[in-house]
Every structure is written in C-alpha cells, then in structure tokens.
Amino acid sequence: MTEHYIQLRLIFSHVHEEEEIEITMGVLATHLCCTMRNMNLIMNKFLDNGWVRWSPQRGRGKKSILVFCLPLHDVAGEWFERLLHHNKIEEAYVLAASLPFHIRENVMHRLQGQFGLRSDHGARGRVDTLRIPQETSFETLDPTQAVVWGDVGIVAEVYDRLVRYNAEYHVCEPGLAMAWESNAEGTEWTFYLHKGVLFHHGRVLEAEDVQFTFERILSSEHNPCKALFGSIQRVETFDDLTVRFVLNAPNFMFPDLMSSINASILPRDVEINPLHPIGTGPYRLVRNDPNILVLEVFSSYFQGRAFIDRVEIWQLPQAGRGESVIRQELFPDGKPHAVQHEVQGGVFMTFNMRKRGPHLDISFRRAIRELMHPQVMADALNRSSIQPTSSLVRKYDRGNQQDEEMYLFDAEKHLREEKMAQQKWTEVNENVGVSADVDTDTGVDEPSLVSASAWLKRSHYAGEMVNVWVEEGVNMEHDMVWFAKRCEQIGLHVNIVSGDVVKAIYHDELQAYDLIYTGEVFDDHVMRSLITMYTFQNTLFLSVMDDHWRHELERECGQIVAMQEPEDRMESLLQLEDRLIQEALLLPVYSFREEHSYHPSLRDYRVMGYGMPDLRRLWVKRSPNASEESSSYSAYIPLW
C-alpha cells in the first residue's frame, strides 16, 4: 500500500499537501495499472491510514476531490528504511532513484551502515560480504579497453597476468607464469606457466590462451593497447605450458609490461563479453547490471582461496554528493582505523591538440600554465589533502635504502630545477616584456597573473570563447571556479563544462573542448604507469594528443624500455615529462591523498594503487561478542 501511495505522489509531485485535485477513480486506476475494484480497495486503505481525503461525486462527467495529507518525504523515508531493515537494498536503491532530488538526498542519509563488511551465518556456513558504493558506472571490463579505475579495479580481481608486481619490494613476481627468461639482447622472452590453473568456466589455462590474448591485441589496428605491446613481433607456443614472445626491438621492461592490467589473460574458447568477463582471478563475476555488480570468491583459485566470500559494488543514485552521505557517522561504536593512501599520479591541465583553436599556440598554453600556478592555487584553496606539484611522479619516497638514495638524488635535482626555474622566470619575463610592477592594463599584481597576461598578449588569442572540460567532482569543479576568475582578470573568456570521465574516454566526448582538466591515477608500478599513459590510446591525456605527439611518445617509450637499468628508464621518463611540461602540453597542478577508514576487525587492510583494498589479503576477525547469526563491520572506501 505504501508503494501505491508513493507512486501516486510521484505522479502528482506538482501538487502540495492539502491541495484539492479534481479526478476520477478510473484515472487513478490507470495510473496504478490496476482494476477499478482494486483501486477502491487501495483508496479505502489510504483513508483508514489518514493519508488522503476523498470526496466522491456522483453523476456523469463529475470529478471527485482528492487531497493528499501525508508528505512524500515522510512516507518515502519510512519505506526506504523498512527496505534496508529487511536487507532489500536493491529495492531501496530503485526507490531512491525515483524520488525528486531534494527528497532523494535526504533518504540517502539512511544508507549509513549498509556499506562495509557484513558477516552472516546461514545454511552454507559463514559468508563474509563486502559492500562498496560508487557513483561511476561500469563501461567495459575488457582489459584491453579499461582505463577508468572503477573498471580497472574489477579487472584486477577477475583476471590474472603472467607476472605480478610486488609494490612492497618493487619487484616482479610469478603470476600465471612460475618463471621466465630472456636472451641477452632482450628480444626473446619465454614464460613457463603454472600447471592446473583454472578459468572460471572450468577449463585449464594453456599457452595457447596467452598466445590468443596477445594476438587479439596485435591483430586489431584500433585496439588501444597495440602501441603498449607494439614491440611484440610474434607469439610462439612449444607445449601447453611454454610460451615465447619474439620482439622486433630490445625490451628489458617486458616482464613489467606483462604485469599490466592490460596484459590480463583471456580464454580462447569463449567469446569476449566486455561486461561479463571470464578469467582465472580470485573472484568471478556473477552479476552486472545498472544497480549492482557482484563478485563471488573463486574457490579453485590457483594461489589459494580469498577470505572475503562476496563483493557487492552498488551504483549510488545521484544524490548530490553521495560520498559525504555515506561517510557521516559511519562508525558510531568507536574510532575507526585509518589508512592514508598517497595517490600516485595527480591532477593536471592539458589541451586538445586534435582541435583547431588558440591553444595550438604555445604562448597561449604558457599563459594557461601561469593561470594554473600550482602553489598559488593550493594557497587559495587551502585544501589539506592536496600538495602542489610540478610532476605527476611523487619523487620523495623514503620507503627503503634504495628509495632514500633516490630521494637524495631527486632532492639535488629539485634544487637544480628550482634555480633553473628562477633563471627561466627572469628570462621569460624579459622576453615577453613583464615587469615586477603592476600590469597597468589588467590592474593585477600577482606575479603569475602578470606573466599570464603577458603570454596571452603574445599569443594569437583574439578574444574568442575557450571551452574547458573538467572531470566531474566537487574539488575539481571548485578548482575551475577559481580558474575562471583568474581568466576573467586577464581578459580570457572561458566556458567551463563538467563531464563524466566514462563518456569522455569511451564515447569521445572531448571533441568540442580546447582545454581538458582531469587527473591520472597510477597503480603501484609508477614507471609502467607512465609508459601506459604515453602509449595506451584510452588515457585521457593521449586521447587529445595529435598524431605527431602520439608517434613521438611511442618512439620515446620504445627507446626507454630498451634500456637495461631501471634507474636510466625512470630518469628518461622524467625527462620526457619535463619536455611535455616545457611544451606546455602537460600542466601538473597537484597530487592528493585519500583516507580509508575501516572497522578494527578488518585485518590486513592494504590499499592497492588503484584505490581499492587488496581483496586477496583482507580478512575479518569477528568479535567474540558478535551475534551468532550476523555482524557488520563498517568501512569507508573513497568512491571512484
């Protein structure tokens, strides 16, 4: 009965409580898709509960009077809570999605406590379920296409790679391959597979599956991974457990590339379904629809069964900013444990080099670089979770002795860069006619604005509107409000539009925009992530580069992977980034950190590079006081 009342109130959402409506019983029955008899029964229930007043009128052509007494807000909230109480979270989601925005946001507060981990005892024994909310829909789980971190997080659990990267020790370890070797030139790499590895559909992994996986990539001109694995000339199998890659050029980083999500191994005997994949990973996908994606543990996993039995990822109905709603008062029974996750990568501005416009002029791009001055922005926004940066690579990791040496090296390099930057600042100001005093044309005296104004005057900008695309999100949209005010101060006209990163990447919705404000999140293998950013066609950065820069980046990365020493490769990648920054094609602004909060009973909680807890290691220590039937353990995982 409650559902019927909510349905009618949504149909007549423009009608206020205590406002009279002239209507017939027949029209109401049509709205509820029921018979006249059932409509009379429903109306009597409404009257008994005091939800409506009904004044029937007799006679042909006469309409009765209906008055709603109970506010939609009250009845929807009560019904939403009842559904949650009975663990009907999917029905609660459907209800929330149907409500007007202002009511939806309010009822979503009742979701507190629904996410995290729930441990239940039933006929099958103990079942541990991790529920995670998110606001970005899944577009593809094809590992050769996936680039959004929501998609990548699922791919990481469903599939395996030949090699796994150990972020703690910074080494490649066996994955599907138990060992590998190469010739001295780095042009042939042979991998030896584990025996008895099962795909989720029950067949044993064979070398031909590895061959199929990479031939699928190489045979398609349009596969975005093709440049990433472009050094592969052919793939050979010698028996069921041995596969050799013959390369057209030396590649001493080949095992690292084989640990990439994009190198996940697919079964050759099943047609690829990009939203219902089959892999060999610790979890198999059992459901994927617009409301929920469900992973269940794969008990036959070759590296041992994961502890968490089921992972549910729920699509939050749009309700303002659902993340803050979920986080509020999530831990009423005590202080949670927290993990500070320093996100590798960062936020940056880039330019659509595939579109004509003033941004093709380097002087214009340098004006934008001054407008997006990282330190000035950080000071203005005063946001504790961000750190202004001149690079997408965090350079000061002191995790071990090797990192300490790298830190000292980078600190010296940083000092050199600072001196060079100061010298270059003076030269640039002299070249473009900037003085240290107030720019009398603009009336601004902040140095970066003065420099931006001078660069803009030097460019071919003629007062036209410049379209800026910004990735959806409160913080980044606030960044662009600040940026727009800066543009106004120097006479630059911008039109800022926020957009869905999924649509931008997979549906090519950036064609109309000149400037792109987004971010790149690296996984734990930073060096490989940089190579991916510069060669994988689905990254936002590469998607807006013209053919010249795409070919140049692919060429540079080909030379870098041919270097034998990792230190040389990283130094060359940093030099390549410096070149992009000097060309004002890549403007790093800030790096940021996320905080995961979780119940102390969740053990071995470690955050992976893509922002998800490592489900292969996570386990639950139930409280001795927990009820025998069920127990809940809250967890706050930042939304993708």
From TrEMBL:
Residues 5-114 form the Transcriptional regulator SgrR N-terminal HTH domain. The keyword DNA-binding applies. Keywords: DNA-binding. Residues 173-423 form the Solute-binding protein family domain. The keyword DNA-binding applies. This is MarR-like DNA-binding transcriptional regulator SgrR of sgrS sRNA. It comes from Paenibacillus tundrae.
